[in-house]
Design a protein that fits this description.
CATH topology of the largest domain: Spore Coat Polysaccharide Biosynthesis Protein SpsA, Chain A
CATH superfamily of the largest domain: Spore Coat Polysaccharide Biosynthesis Protein SpsA, Chain A
Largest sheet: 8 strands, mixed
Helix content: 40-55%
Radius of gyration: 22 Å
Structural class: alpha/beta
Number of domains: 2
Number of helices: 13
Number of strands: 8
Distance between the termini: 40 Å
Shape: globular
CATH class of the largest domain: Alpha Beta
Strand content: 5-15%
Strand order of the largest sheet: 3-2-1-4-7-6-8-5
Length: 365
């Protein structure tokens, strides 16, 4: 996407009384990085009086509240305007909806509290919407914020790199919307307290969603720094994937009951143990079980490129100095990530089975 020629091209025709854009940060225990996030947003190449920053503190128990308040006090009287709102801990989606209610911009941009924006971040968001008037959602590129950690670099240039290379992938740390679209859809679904919020929103939108991905819309985001942190994220992703499947079935987007998908997840979880048990007592039957389980693995990790994609991404990167052991580690992380995502899905299936889906609140009254 071409870079904007002049600032006037971007700001022309927008009412002076209302910010062009509101950046919403949902803060939760971000004391280590929130100041860098805010500093990057206050240092934009976009006119500071034409956008504002809205911080929703979802009941953090660390020092982030004090850090944010000091930052705001130090910038008293300066643009962009920063507003801070603290609430009880209710989860990410409710915090995102609270940000919609408390913001005024015609464009609403979300950035995670552990991310840092490029100087031209807002310019490029606004340019994307101007160049694509049909678009109601804009995403961008996610660079690595913690390159000093080798594990984080490995994740960025293998698993995350492959995921972000998929067509029109938009992630929660770098997503912008037209306000009218969010109001029409009804905002983020409250049940998605930690992950899956944008996927649920896209599910609700259906054919009304018009996405654009501009690689010049750049944020840098922290990647996991250990295998344990990565596995916890995969469990959470599996857990909320079950909620997405229930939502699809409830909205009649999919006729496949989550139970069908659960059976496939259980087959992956129990397959190796069943195969070993049968092999111990009946070799021919055990070999049949082994063949069936290997077929499941090939279908998921090879045919769907869940393993081969990250390995190829690692092989082609020129930014990261590779070792042969890195390929083994990525293979292990993908397989273990799949295992723990399956466990998360199993837990999520029963957790969300009887849930009474809430109506999001994005407007006062």
């Amino acid at each position: 996407m071409a870079r904007a020629n002049t600032m006037a091209d971007i700001t022309a025709g927008l009412a002076d009384s209302t910010p062009d854009l509101s950046v919403i940060i949902c803060n939760y225990r971000s004391a280590a990085i929130i100041q860098s996030c805010l500093a990057s947003l206050c240092g934009q190449d976009y006119p500071a009086e034409r956008y504002d920053i809205v911080i929703i503190d979802d009941g953090s128990q660390d020092e982030s509240a004090e850090i944010i308040q000091r930052f705001i006090e130090d910038r008293a009287g300066k643009h962009p305007k920063i507003s801070y709102h603290r609430k009880e801990n209710e989860g990410l989606s409710i915090a995102r909806n609270d940000g919609i209610r408390r913001s005024r911009g015609a464009i609403i941009t979300y950035i995670d509290d552990d991310a840092v924006a490029d100087r031209q971040f807002i310019i490029q968001v606004m340019a994307s919407f101007r160049e694509h008037p049909e678009a109601n959602c804009v995403g961008g590129r996610v660079d690595l914020l913690n390159p000093e950690n080798r594990f984080a670099r490995l994740m960025q240039y293998s698993i995350m790199g492959w995921y972000m290379s998929q067509n029109e992938v938009i992630v929660g740390t770098n997503m912008s919307y037209r306000r009218g679209f969010l109001e029409e859809i009804g905002g983020f679904q409250p049940e998605f307290t930690r992950r899956g919020d944008e996927t649920a929103l896209f599910t609700k939108a259906g054919e009304r969603l018009r996405k654009v991905v501009n690689p010049q819309v750049i944020v840098s985001h922290r990647q996991p720094e250990s295998a344990g942190e990565w596995i916890r994220k995969r469990w959470e992703s599996g857990h909320f994937e079950a909620a997405v499947d229930y939502l699809k079935y409830r909205l009649e987007i999919s006729r496949k009951k989550p139970t069908i998908k659960l059976l496939g997840r259980v087959a992956h979880l129990l397959g190796p143990w069943i195969t070993i048990a049968v092999l111990l007592f009946n070799l021919p039957a055990g070999l049949i079980c082994l063949f069936g389980y290997l077929t499941l693995l090939v279908r998921r990790y090879i045919m769907h490129r869940v393993l081969t994609g990250p390995l190829r991404e690692l092989a082609k990167t020129k930014t990261f100095t590779r070792r042969w052991s890195d390929y083994l580690l990525v293979t292990f992380l993908v397989l273990m990530g799949g295992y723990w995502a399956d466990r998360g899905y199993f837990r999520g299936y029963f957790h969300f089975r009887g849930v009474s889906w809430q109506t999001p609140r994005i407007q006062d009254g």
